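User: Can you predict the 3D structure for this chain?
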Amino acid sequence: MEPTVCPWCQSEIVWDEEIGPEEHCPHCANELKGYRTLNIALEDEDAEKDAEVYEADYEEASDEEADDLRRIWGAEPESMSTLRTVDKYGEDHDLFAFEEAVEGILDEQEEVPECLHCREYMLFAGTQRVSGEGFQPVNAPLIQGPVLQTPYEMNVYVCPGCFQVQYNLAENDRLQMIKSFIHKKE
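Assistant: Here is the predicted structure, written as structure tokens:
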């Protein structure tokens, strides 16, 4: 049987003749049959074209493909430019200089998460310490204690495109959490 190349991760997939063709790549777990290309315009004039592309794709799609399109485009088709709140400040401010500054900051960051809302890379804004006040830890029976002990620190990230804020556990507290799970389970 002839090997296939995954369109997502470019891995060669050799099928088992008894089982037959794979539906998902065993390396990256992406769907092999549903590989599609989407062209997303970033200009406001192209928002109508985006909606037309969405509607055309949606009408031709199977139920599974339609779910994928809804997940990609959202419930209502909208262009990426409507997700970028920063664009509305372009008339009064030099957004090119802003973008250059953002790129410079991102180049110096060790960790660069992606915004869950608009997929822009997020800027590290600082850390926030969480003490016992206002935080009620949950006790997990498996580890016989809280999942997260106070005090702990969170990294704070802000999106330069839509200004959403996200948090994740600081490095030292990640390690502390791992160690506490291992020691409590033993």
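The first strand starts at residue 4 and ends at 5. Confidence is low (pLDDT under 50) at residues 76-81.
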